[in-house]
Design a protein that fits this description.
The chain is mainly beta and 269 residues long. It is built from three helices and 16 strands. Strands 1, 2, 5, 9, 10, 11 and 15 form a seven-stranded antiparallel sheet that branches. Strands 3, 4, 6, 7, 8, 12 and 16 form a seven-stranded mixed sheet that branches. Keywords: Signal.
Length: 269
């Protein structure tokens, strides 16, 4: 380990020495690079009531820790369609703006949070915040100031739809139930049915559900993060292909200057 550190230090000195005589200038700003969406064992898509599947732009191709931008449409009601492409029974913890969509509590995507259960090769559609056993309140894209998470004073994960997928721990056969001199297997549990943007707490809709027994493993098999932004923001970030030829507007972030990367003269110089 010490040898590695010494070697790296020597390289750093050589690089600095070279910069004195022949400086090399690089442009730190780069456009978004198009890439293929990986095949996911448990997939999640954002679907608008009127606009259909939201435009999605992958940031990486890691099927175990997938990240992408998603285009949001103001005031659009939307749903999350989750598909289990695996042959295992899966529990999914889903958080919108950092809040668990079943309990409404702040989420860390842990295996002890409330989750939806998907049978092998099954799909589930989740339209809103679960406000009762048979009721949800619709998701809709709104200003961050009007978001459900903001109402709880939590803006720590605003604009992100996140999911962690947990396989089920192997289950032992249920113990036999004695009925007189006969032995019968216990019935199996039934599967469960069913400025910046934020997600609001919309109108109530009928959404029946019931509880099942499910013990997840300790670590998720996959995590997925979708960062939704208004079209204008995706343009400024050079994510949308049709906007990459347009020069970005000056921003107000002190760590992201838009002055071409060079030091301007001081004020009143």
């Amino acid at each position: 380990m010490k040898h590695l550190k010494l070697k790296m230090s020597a390289l750093a000195v050589l690089a600095l020495a070279g910069c004195v005589e022949n400086p090399v200038i690089s442009d730190a700003r780069a456009d978004y690079r198009d890439m293929s969406r990986p095949e996911l064992a448990v997939d999640m898509r954002v679907e608008g009531d009127n606009t259909g599947a939201a435009r999605e732009f992958p940031v990486n191709g890691n099927a175990k820790h997938y990240r992408a931008y998603v285009q949001a449409t103001p005031n659009e009601r939307y749903r999350l369609r989750v598909t289990n492409n695996s042959g295992e029974r899966i529990g999914v913890v889903i958080a919108v703006d950092g809040r668990n969509i079943i309990s409404g509590k702040q989420s860390n995507l842990r295996n002890d949070e409330r989750m939806y259960i998907l049978e092998p090769y099954a799909s589930g559609t989740y339209e809103g915040w679960r406000s009762g056993q048979n009721q949800t309140n619709r998701f809709f894209f709104t200003q961050a100031s009007n978001a459900y998470a903001t109402a709880w004073g939590d803006t720590s994960a605003m604009g992100v739809i996140a999911m962690a997928a947990y396989p089920e721990k192997p289950r032992l056969p249920p113990p036999p139930v004695m009925h007189g001199n006969r032995m019968e297997a216990a019935p199996a549990a039934a599967p469960m049915m069913r400025p910046a943007p934020g997600t609001g707490y919309g109108e109530s809709t009928w959404s029946p559900s019931h509880s099942v027994d499910f013990e997840p493993v300790g670590n998720p098999m996959e995590k997925l993060f979708l960062k939704y932004e208004w079209r204008e923001t995706l343009c400024e970030k050079r994510v949308l292909p049709e906007c990459r030829a347009v020069q970005p507007r000056p921003g107000n972030n002190r760590f992201w200057p838009e002055n071409g990367g060079y030091a301007p003269p001081p004020p009143r110089h």
